[in-house]
Specification:
The protein has 184 residues and is mostly beta strands. Strand 1 and strand 2 form a beta hairpin. It folds into two domains: 59 residues; 106 residues, Jelly Rolls (Sandwich), CATH 2.60.120.10.
Length: 184
């Protein structure tokens, strides 16, 4: 019996029914069942397969342009928008990924939060203002940054074009990755 002819594992069937997803094709060679399907409502590609003790694992692939940009309107933010690429809403268990874009002259507020941030700057140039002393550090495309929990920081776009960065944050219980938890 070829893989595409095999019946789906009941666990995958239950997951598909609960998510209202449409099967697209079936493949695999090692006895593991891999199911590729497309979710038209969110225009993303997913692959589901059984891994580690019959646990359902899902791979998600999205294009950033398919994720709406959300303007950041909190006090102190200006000219910034975020695309929440991967969050708990997508099934991410531990980390969320954001694409942050700051227009020329724009900035984040000078803030801190309980979540660490890992950032990778891939376009533009700006300024990181960090710590209680407000030390300034230039940032540009190709720079990677780790901000520890509760570290005060602000990012400003000092260039003529957009400042773009990927930001990952850990998911705390009950959080989606679209928000942060302020330090006390």
């Amino acid at each position: 019996m070829r893989n595409w002819q095999r019946p789906l594992h009941p666990f995958i069937l239950r997951s598909l029914r609960s998510k209202s997803l449409t099967p697209h094709k079936f493949s695999g060679w090692t006895g593991e069942e891999n199911l590729h399907y497309f979710s038209p409502a969110r225009a993303r590609y997913r692959q589901a397969h059984l891994c580690r003790k019959n646990r359902l694992c899902i791979m998600i692939l999205k294009h950033a342009s398919d994720v709406p940009a959300v303007p950041m309107t909190k006090p102190g933010f200006s000219g910034m928008q975020a695309r929440f690429l991967l969050t708990a809403d997508d099934g991410c268990p531990r980390y969320a990924m954001r694409l942050m874009e700051i227009a020329p002259g724009g900035c984040t507020s000078f803030h801190n939060h309980k979540e660490e941030h890992e950032m990778y700057f891939f376009e533009g140039e700006g300024l990181l203002i960090a710590g209680k002393t407000g030390s300034e550090h230039p940032v540009r495309a190709g720079d990677a940054l780790l901000l520890m929990p509760c570290e005060l920081h602000q990012i400003r776009n000092t260039g003529k074009g957009m400042l773009k960065m990927i930001c990952t944050v850990p998911l705390f219980p009950g959080k989606t990755g679209k928000e942060t938890s302020p330090c006390e």
